[in-house]
Amino acid sequence: MIEKVEKTMLEHGMTGCGSILIGLSGGADSAALAHVLKRLSVKYGFTVSAAHVNHCLRGADADRDEDFSKRFAASLGIEIFSLRADVKGYAKEHGMSEEQAGRAVRYDYFERLMNENGIDCTATAHHRNDNAETIVMNFMRGSGMTGLCGIPYRRDRIIRPLLDVSRDEIERYCAENSIEYVTDATNFEELYTRNRIRHRLIPFIEKEFNPAFTETVTKNAAVISCEEDFIRGEAEGLYAEHVKDGAIETAVLNSLHPAMQLRIVRMMIDECCGTADVSSAVIRSVIKIAAENKTGTRADINRAAAASVGYGRLKIALRRRSAEGFAYRLSLGSGLYIPELGFTVHAERADQKKGDGEYFSIPGRLAEDIGGAELEIRSRRPGDSFVPSGMNGTKKLKDFMIDTKIPRDDRDSVGILTIDGKIAWVMGYRRDDRFKFKSFGIKIRISY
Questions:
Q1: Which terminal residue of the chain has fewer beta carbons within 10 Å of its beta carbon, N or C?
Q2: Amino acid 314: pLDDT
Q3: What is the largest CA-CA distance in the chain?
Q4: Residue 391: what pLDDT?
Q5: CA geometry: angle at 59 spanning 55 and 63, to 5°?
Q6: H/E stretch holding 329
């Protein structure tokens, strides 16, 4: 097993770490990792230390694991850092599962220890079986190509030297070298999806279909990972060339292969607000409005961001809100930047429809009187109502926003164009039927 780990570390540049922090839980995997790295450190000259996180979720068992990890590290002559964390409280505060919270706490702690102590890398004890379980779980979740790559050998300063080693090999190594370890009883509880995959699904597949399923899955993941690297490189090139300030020309995006469209939009969202809570359905909704290429259309991404189309460009940006509302007077023949909306509004006279923009006639005003019209861009106000195009009669703006399923938190961020004090356009959603363009009026154009 030592030769296997050494080969993995050489192939993936892990031996270049001058110092390695080991995530030590006290289980067989991390105990074996610590034992192997301590032996390899003599040959390659890197220093080894360990870190243990007590999640404080399993009472006396968690305390037992902490005590064991400290004694085990001492037996190897390894310095150990430890943290007692309120993972349950962290999960509640951040609205996540205890499993997710535990992972976040661990990696935050590893990062802090590396920064404070000048440590180059953190090694975690993920092995081949963990990788297969992750790939199967990601496949069932529909995570796409990236998820099917499995666990990476390296991610920033995190390294995984055991990824080419199976769980059976680890347990055999512990037995041959008289390595003691503790067992976490929750690893056998089928409350967690991963445990059901580990104890029920994969054994069933290996028994009934393919005895080498774990090895087959991880080999396939290596092929997919290679292809993913190539596609990622192509996407990054296109992104650097065409995405500027969170926006891309819709013509460019629409000309790409659908797989590349998904990749580019995901990268745009990730740069804007991250993609942790963004589903493939959301990404496809963004691609859909880009394909339709209709100025003013929007697609919600999450509570923090939205996508919008404006005059041939798709833009993804954080939502802009103003608790006190906003109002800006607009003059013909000029442009005005609206910070709450993140774009500039241009207004000009129009004797005919020509070019991109939204066109409005003004009831009661002759052509020579258009310049006297009062134009305003503002947020909604209590009692607002208008006559939505395609509908009969007046409708309260509040009811329209509810029916249109505009999220409550976003309603104060919707721009309202008023002409002579009346709503002419709920920007991005619906025009007022009273201002339908006839032979002359005004043109409103948006630019980012």
A1: C
A2: 93
A3: 96
A4: 81
A5: 70
A6: strand 327-330
Which letter, b or e, does each residue of 429-439 get, where b requires 16 or more Cβ atoms within 10 Å of its Cβ? Answer: bbbbebbebee
Q: What is the pLDDT of residues 281-311, one digit of tens each?
A: 889 999 999 999 987 788 888 767 888 888 7
Q: State residue 72's pLDDT score.
A: 97
Closest CA to 43 of 13, 1, 6: 6
d(CA 179, CA 28): 8
d(Cα 132, Cα 220) in Å, to the nearest integer?
10
Residues 194 and 151: beta-carbon distance below 8 Å? no
Q: Is 181 left (phi over 0), alpha (psi -120 to 50) or beta?
A: beta
Alpha helices in 247-313 (DSSP H): 250-255, 258-273, 280-292
Q: Distance between CA 254 and CA 270 in Å, rounded?
A: 20
Joined together, the tokens standing for residue 223 give 């092929």
Please tell me the distance from the alpha carbon of residue 247 to that of residue 224, in angstroms, as a whole number: 30
Write down the pLDDT at residue 302: 76
pLDDT (0 to 100) of residue 91 = 86
Residue 178: count other Cβ atoms within 10 Å of its Cβ.
6
- Convert 27-44 to b/e letters by CB count within 10 Å (16 or more is b): bbbbbbbbbbbbebbeeb
Residue ranges in the chain whose pLDDT is less than 50: none
> Cβ–Cβ contacts within 10 Å for residue 73, how many?
25
Give Cβ neighbours of residue 96 (< 8 Å, ≥ 6 apart): 104
Angle at Cα 216 formed by Cα 215 and Cα 221, nearest 5°?
Answer: 100
Joined together, the tokens standing for residue 311 give: 């005059």
CB–CB of 258/301 below 8 Å? no
285 CB neighbour count, 10 Å cutoff? 17
Cβ atoms 127, 29 nearer than 8 A: yes
Identify residue 438 by its one-letter amino acid code.
K
Using CB atoms within 10 Å of the CB of residue 352, give its burial: 0 to 12 exposed, 13 to 18 middle, 19+ buried: exposed
